[in-house]
Amino acid sequence: MTAVMILILFLINALLIFAIILLFMRQNRLLEVEKKQREMLSEAEELVSGLLAEMREENDRFLQQLAHARKMDEKPGQNTSYNDKADKPEDVIGGGLSEEAIDSTEETIDITEETLDRVEETENAQEEQSLRNQVEAMAAQGMTMTEIAKALGKGKTEIELAMKFYQQA
Prior knowledge:
- By secondary structure, this protein is an all-alpha fold.
- The chain has a domain at 45-71 and 99-169.
- The chain is 80% helix and 0% strand.
- The chain has four helices and no strands.
- It has helices at residues 2-73, 99-140, 145-152, 156-168.
- Helix 1 (2-73) packs across helix 2 and helix 3 packs across helix 4 (156-168).
């Protein structure tokens, strides 16, 4: 009878050890999943911050191009169709401009905006291609991402994103 009890206790101990091992394995899997989620979250944050920085730079360039285009369109001694306080032609209708002048101003603004969009697209494509070539060439020379970022005057995150992007393409 004692032998049977010892056998039952031994089987229960073996079953408990097996259950502990299973729980330990599940806990490790859960920790791995959490680690992967943290890595994905940090990558997503880096991507979003890089995109925001890129959008900010594009916005600044656009504003500079728009200011430059306005300066080029304005001629000394001529009335402009808009001023700093009134950005829309509708805002200056009461200012003594005729409907024809407003219509021609709207057309000019539309043409200017289309031209700026085309110029910006061309510049972006050229800049992206040249940046890509520079990054790939420097990486092929064995430079680190930090060195490449310093050499190109870009952020380390932007270079890392560019490298990941180019490797996927």
